[in-house]
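This section describes the prediction task in plain terms. A model, or a person checking by hand, is given the sequence of a single protein chain and must write out its three-dimensional structure as a string of tokens. No templates, partner chains or ligands are provided. The sample shown here is typical of the held-out split.
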Amino acid sequence: MDHSNGYDQLADDFAAIRAGSNIGVAAIREWAHAFKPGSSILDVGCGTGVPVTKTLLQEGMNICGVDASPNLVSLFRKNCPDVPVICEPAETSSFFNRTFDGVVAWGLLFLLSEQQQITVIQNVAGRLQSGGRFLFTAPSQNVEWNDVLTGLPSRSLGAKRYKALLNSCGFQRVEEFEDEGENHYYHATKQ
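The expected answer:
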């Protein structure tokens, strides 16, 4: 089974697309400003590390990465050689068996089934310290579509469902916003 949802076979194509794009960088940078330098951040679905992990490193964060694609993890290691990374599906990852000040999942959750999304959010809640911050992207609508790169099904649970799920997992103050690429963000703080 391909836990990378088709991205392992298309790793080079994905790397080329993300390397040439600054979409999301300003949002990630702004999110990072809420943390003290040296804060521990987990990048779930880290891909190649470009641009999310690189941006967080520039902001002085200590990063760990998780991705299900061996090819993307290999590219991540080249782009971010000093950053710990593990090749595991987000829904079954040990997340390094530690807690973090923040977790980011840019462009990942909607690639997973509804149950896998729920599991990832629950696991993230269990790995965040009190006051920790979780930032992820998914459309605000409850919608299904085929991923542009892989052609595989993607699904957003919609804002109402994500907010309810986050609240049930101990998050408070869920905020939403969009970036210049019309990516919809959910920002939640753990109680």
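For orientation: DSSP finds six helices and nine strands in the chain.
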